[in-house]
């Protein structure tokens, strides 16, 4: 009996090991997620879970949103950690960040979600203040000490009106101040001019006017998808956002 058990143990020890399945191994690209203003990277959690469950390596940038330069550098550092060619995804102000950081040769294509896509020599401020007759304007408080906030009393109905109030009420109080050093600088690069672009336009957006989104998407010659969503699409429609990103990843191959 002892000899039988010993034989089984030896056979188990010498058998060819089954390789452990690691997230991302099955896909040829890495996905890097870049958040926008007033929030942090935790808003990507549901989308992150879907993408990793589908086999993608997903990396998430935590931008301080104090200056555009520091956010671009933070994004480049995360791109450098990716093990495969990168699909770079930006939400809202994060679109400006990926427009600049996306010139990195490791970045294969870009995906914008309700995002700013400035041109060279253009700032987020210029795009955010384009006339949009008949469309809602974001309820921003006047700058204080070089930073901007959304009016907390209007955050829930403007930033994410289709997200549960228990979440948006907390988000309003936990806002990350948006630095004028991120809003006002003009871009020196516009990666969307040279790389494939996908754009998700959120038709119920009260922070970045849908007409402005359409202008930017058209200018970038983007593959356009429309979603009936607030500005916070990754919170209210994570499945649709994940599907959009995956489509961008596949079509960029």
Task: Record keyword descriptors for this entry.
single chain, 253 residues, alpha/beta, six-stranded parallel beta sheet, 38% helix, hydrolase, AB_hydrolase_fold, hydrolase activity, signal, AB_hydrolase_1
The coarse silhouette is globular
Q: Give the strand tally.
A: 8
CATH class categorisation: Alpha Beta
Low-confidence stretches: 1-24
Structural class category:
alpha/beta
Major β-sheet, in short? 6 strands, parallel
Strand content: 15-25%
Distance between the termini: 57 Å
Count of helical segments? Answer: 11
Supply the CATH architecture. Answer: 3-Layer(aba) Sandwich
Task: Write the CATH fold name.
Answer: Rossmann fold
CATH homologous superfamily name? Alpha/Beta hydrolase fold, catalytic domain
Radius of gyration from the alpha-carbon trace, in angstroms: 21 Å
Quote the average pLDDT. Answer: 91
- SSE pattern, N- to C-terminal: HEHEHEHEHEHHEHEHEHH
**Sheet with most strands: strand arrangement:** 2-1-3-4-7-8
């Amino acid at each position: 009996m002892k000899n039988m058990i010993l034989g089984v143990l030896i056979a188990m020890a010498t058998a060819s090991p089954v390789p452990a399945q690691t997230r991302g191994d099955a896909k040829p690209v890495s996905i890097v997620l870049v958040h926008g203003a007033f929030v942090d990277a935790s808003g990507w959690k549901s989308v992150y879970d879907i993408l990793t469950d589908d086999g993608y390596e997903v990396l998430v940038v935590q931008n301080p949103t104090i200056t555009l330069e520091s956010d671009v550098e933070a994004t480049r550092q995360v791109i450098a950690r990716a093990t495969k060619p990168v699909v770079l995804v930006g939400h809202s102000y994060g679109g400006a960040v990926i427009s600049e950081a996306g010139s990195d040769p490791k970045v294969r294509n870009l995906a914008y979600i309700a995002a700013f896509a400035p041109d060279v020599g253009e700032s987020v401020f210029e795009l955010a203040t384009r006339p949009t007759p008949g469309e809602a304007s974001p309820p921003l408080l006047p700058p204080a000490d070089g930073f901007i906030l959304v009016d907390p009393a209007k955050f829930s109905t403007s930033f994410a009106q289709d997200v549960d109030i228990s979440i948006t009420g907390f988000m309003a109080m936990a806002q990350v101040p948006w630095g004028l050093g991120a809003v006002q600088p003009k871009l020196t690069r516009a990666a969307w001019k040279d790389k494939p672009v996908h754009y998700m336009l959120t038709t119920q957006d009260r922070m970045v006017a849908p007409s402005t989104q359409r202008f930017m998407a058209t200018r970038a010659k983007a593959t356009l998808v429309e979603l009936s969503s607030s500005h916070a699409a990754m919170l209210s429609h994570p499945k649709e956002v994940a599907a959009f990103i995956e489509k961008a990843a596949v079509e960029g191959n």
